[in-house]
Amino acid sequence: MSSTLPDDIANCVLAAFEALPPKFKPRERAQGKREWVPLSGIVLSSELEPLTCVALATGMKCLPRDKMQMANGTTLHDWHAEVLTIRAFNRFLIDECLNVADGNSSPWIMRSPDAELQPFTIKDDIRIHMYCSECPCGDASMELIMNEQEDATPWTYLSPVVPEETNVIPLHGRGYFSELGIVRTKPSRPDAPVTLSKSCTDKLALKQCTSLLNSIASLLIAPRQAYLNSLVIPESQYVPTAIERAFGLNGRMKSITPQITCEWTEAYGYKPFNVITTSREFQFSKRAACPGNDRIASNLSAVWTPYFEEVLIGGVQQGRKQFDSIGGSRTCRKSLWKAVVNVLDKAEEVPHFEAKAEMNYANAKANSALDCRRKVKEDVRRYVLKGWARNAGDDSFGL
């Protein structure tokens, strides 16, 4: 890998963000205070195509657990930049599949040549890279959080929710600094509403086994080529021991042994990404925006792919009420599901959706075509991500 590639990947995402209109960007407040926000992006490369940014997002919020049942498939559960970028990438791939189903060509997607359950696949020579302007929240960033504290005393708040299947209490994002290598929920103030959204570190660790595809997109696209090859973070955010502990072969992922993966279909495996650093800093990062008390967290989320761009507040499109049924992002559960069904109909690949008119989202995710994916998730949660409490309550909606 070229030593300049990390900077090239970062530059690709930063340039795509810079090209967005001002309304997508953090604002300057009164008295010289400025907003900051994390940025993440997905960049594709191949032998024939230059580095191309195909999805990006900013954000740092998520939905409290007590509001999950109000989401109805339209309000996002988690819009931290990394998670929202992966959702945007899934939407980009689905839109590319629709393009191919309409008879057009794509540099990234093609019809699957194998007799697989999914009718589409990412081309063999494609490599997937992810840039993050901040180290992902959770276990990979614990040392960074410790170093930021004026008072190094760890927050001691614990989520009261104990998952029945593990009997392990997931730690709040910044609680108990001494506990490392564990599942954490999203960080927030100790007095903030409880969330069961897992940290970006934990979600990325799981993606090393399930691929970047979510469950609904996995009905459409084969997962084999959908794994992340490299994760690029700023030099200032890189703590080697933390990265290895969170993601590496010698960290907590060592529990995923060949004896476990041999029971998975060949489409899945533990495929660790390479974490590399860049000298580039995002102009709206926590470090670049403003020092100390002059820095304010932005409540805006920007989402972009070559097919659409959105500004979100509260997990829905700006200007809509949070649980408005028509305010959903194109990356929300209902929109992604509808887009996949649309592609399968156009591609005349509909065996998995024969009863789709009567389906709700839970039925769609329970499809037998996803049995292998469920097995992978269950194994990773059982052996590595213990204490992973399901963020349930938003799967009874239909199309």
TrEMBL record:
Q: Name one GO molecular function term.
A: RNA binding
What protein name does the entry list?
A: Adenosine-deaminase domain-containing protein
| Gene Ontology BP annotations | tRNA wobble adenosine to inosine editing
Entries under InterPro entries matching the protein: A_deamin (IPR002466), Tad1 (IPR042935)
Among PROSITE patterns, the record links this protein to: A_DEAMIN_EDITASE
Ranges where the A to I editase domain occurs: 55-368
- Species of the source: Rhizodiscina lignyota
